[in-house]
Amino acid sequence: MDKHISNRIGVIGSGSWATAMIKMLTDNQSEKEIYWWVRKREDIAYIESYKHNPSYLTAVDIKIPFEHISSKVKFVFDNSDIIVLNTPAAYLKDALQDLNAEDFQNKIIVSAIKGIIPDENQIVGEYLTSTYGISIENIIVIGGPCHAEEVSQEKLSYLTFGCNDLEKAEIVASLYKSRYINTIVSDDILGIEYSAVLKNIYALAGGICHGLGFGDNFQAVLVSNAIREMEYFVEVINPGSRDINASAYLGDLLVTAYSQFSRNRTFGNMIGKGYSVKSAQLEMNMVAEGYYASNCIQGIIAKYQLDMHICNMVYQILYNNSPALKEVNILAQKLS
């Protein structure tokens, strides 16, 4: 990819984060064409009539031409040079099922997905390289503390773009920067992606503890232990020089663990209050990535024989039906 590539961008997904992506890209002043894959045809008809998403961030006006919105994912791929993947990780395979490796050729793939593909137990970058033969140099991951709801309100936010090729990261980052979006680039693609997965599990843990009645003092200790556990994990998986206190790591963990907009914290809070996993999922209108990630990350923990006390606690509660209070009390003895 070089600097004269046409800025035709396709966004795959139609939830709150994908809708926020559309807003960020259209508010950026650089010249570009934007194509949007929206799964439901009735939602496309609604957007055509009312210029906003009927289900998510309903106050955000959609500024791209209606003819650039399609329920056909191949249409978006065929018309785009840069593809932004923005579905829940558990739904990505279904969204891409009509595509093959040829559809990904000569394209830059940007993952805004902070989760693991459940069946393959792979982060998105690994899944794309193994399934579609995409070179890792053509994959960019987006990280950092940036909730869709605050983007919709144009509150100052920061995004980190991770890629092995920093020039590509810079080019894609330039398409997002605006008066309320600051951008950072990094070559720690694996560290950023794994950290984005882990912070959802830690936010679930925080929500569980809050639902059980643990206070802010305990939450602070939990999060300080979580960032150390995150650093330990990514250093084993991908050794390298990184500042774990940077916004793509600690910043994203903090906002996901504490924010009122955090779906993972909300999900965990429901579990702590006694909801079953199924009832909590039914009540939420959005996917809590940490639920799927908790199961997937256990395979990696076992493979490398890691001591991940917080991740293990969440897994025991969600997948082995262990009482939440029992598991948090066990964890509390291991925190420092």
TrEMBL record:
Q: Which residues form the Glycerol-3-phosphate dehydrogenase NAD-dependent C-terminal domain?
A: 188-324
The yes or no answer to whether the keyword Lipid biosynthesis is present is yes
Extract the Gene3D superfamilies matched here: N-(1-d-carboxylethyl)-l-norvaline Dehydrogenase, domain 2, NAD(P)-binding Rossmann-like Domain
EC class (word)? oxidoreductase
User: What are the residue boundaries of the Glycerol-3-phosphate dehydrogenase NAD-dependent N-terminal domain, all occurrences included?
Assistant: 9-167
Which reaction does this chain catalyze?
A: sn-glycerol 3-phosphate + NADP(+) = dihydroxyacetone phosphate + NADPH + H(+)
Q: Where is the signal peptide?
A: none
Q: What is this protein called?
A: Glycerol-3-phosphate dehydrogenase
This protein's species is: Sphingobacterium litopenaei
Query: What phylogenetic lineage does the species belong to?
Result: Bacteria, Pseudomonadati, Bacteroidota, Sphingobacteriia, Sphingobacteriales
